[in-house]
């Protein structure tokens, strides 16, 4: 299985122990390929340094988290351009899903991405929906 986790999923895992425990089921399953690209990594790194988020993390925690992601995730070289999301800032995730041949894009973005439900071969779901599908 090939999946993409939206930045809001990573942030929720960093600030909520319960969310982190739920997400660990995915990270612990090495048959699940977690996809990322340079844009998603840059967004994650930028968001976790914002004062609203960084108050939950030490600089060492942030660095360790980014290093873990770089080691755990599969880096995709994205060449596609996509312009379909209601929020143009999310189009890079859809391009990643296309070039990374993702089965699922997991997001908490209830307004825009989840409204699409699917993009090409990628289903767009919440973490709860994915965990339910995994059984």
UniProtKB/TrEMBL annotation:
Q: Which residues form the PIN domain?
A: 2-111
Q: Which InterPro entries match?
A: PIN-like_dom_sf, PIN_dom, PIN_toxin-like
Q: Which domain of life is it from?
A: Bacteria
Pfam families reported in the protein's UniProt record: PIN_3
PANTHER family tied to this protein = SLL8027 PROTEIN, SSL7007 PROTEIN
**Under which name does UniProt file this protein?**
Putative toxin-antitoxin system toxin component, PIN family
> What organism is recorded for this protein?
Larkinella rosea
């Amino acid at each position: 299985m090939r999946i993409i986790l939206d930045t809001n999923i990573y942030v929720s895992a960093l600030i909520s122990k319960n969310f982190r425990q739920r997400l660990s089921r995915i990270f612990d399953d090495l048959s699940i390929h977690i996809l990322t690209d340079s844009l998603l990594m840059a967004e994650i790194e930028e968001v976790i340094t914002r004062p609203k988020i960084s108050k939950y993390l030490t600089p060492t925690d942030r660095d360790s988290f980014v290093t873990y992601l770089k080691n755990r995730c599969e880096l995709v070289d994205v060449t596609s351009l996509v312009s379909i999301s209601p929020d143009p800032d999310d189009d890079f995730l859809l391009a990643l899903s296309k070039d990374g041949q993702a089965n699922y894009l997991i997001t908490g973005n209830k307004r825009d991405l989840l409204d699409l439900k699917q993009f090409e071969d990628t289903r767009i779901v919440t973490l709860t929906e994915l965990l339910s599908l995994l059984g």
